[in-house]
Amino acid sequence: MNDKEQQAILTLCLMAAFADGGKDERERAEIKRIADALAGADSLNIPALYQDVLLKRVTLASAVAPLESPEARQLAYEMAVCVCDADGTQSDAERAFLAELRTALGLDAGAAQAYSAQAESIAAAAVAPAAHASTMSGAELDKSILDASILNGALELLPETLATMAIIPLQMKLVYCIGKSYGFELDRGHVKDFLATVGVGLTSQYLEQAGRKLLGGLLGKLGGGLLRGLGNQAVSSGMSFASTYALGHVAKRYYAGGRTLSTQMLQEAFGAMLGEAKGLHSRYLPDMQARARTLDTAKLVNMVRGG
What we know:
The protein has 307 residues and is mainly α. The protein has 15 helices and no strands.
């Protein structure tokens, strides 16, 4: 995929991120940080794309124009859908944006809507009660956190956009199960607030994961598939493994202590745990690679529902 196609897809993702107009300042700042970070990984001027989208200097027609191949157009639509679903099911404004985008890309309406429905199902399953969501010992929670981290690291290796989409709902479900284990009944809003408090934005996290995979040539059918992904895992630096591991252990500390940690303490704990998790990445990379080879992406919705 050439630079113009990559730029077009990232522009459309940013347009999708702001389609509902509902991003608060914290999430806007995080999206800007991601744009700046992605710029360091490639020759594209992604911060300029961010400004163009935010100031409405780019139109949908001009954004889709460089996408000539059916594969690139399909990938652009899939990534935009996942951006809209990253923080929950689509709003009316996001549905309108995606319908306009689908038309501009010339995609088949039935196939596009089927994909969107799959993504919505994954997003909606984020904190649906899991069968095993009950009290666990500290050791059992530690194993659950590590298992979830390895699974999300494995999903990061796969080229399918829905695999990337599933990482955030699984992180939310992990926090939900940890809270329940300590006697707290959490809803989606609470879990989202917890992630935002420690510094994990939902839309921005998806943009970072998918953006790095796109720029690394690992996302979509054009990316060379699973084997290439397994060989180029360093492109994303085990981001999903580390963030899941850190979220799990900070959530365990937070709920075990009766939710008494301040925002600053939570953020400091998350930063410290994230550094520790990055150090563990190479140790567990073979487990992630082995898990990736066994994942059936056709069953992602059931996997997220089951935790």
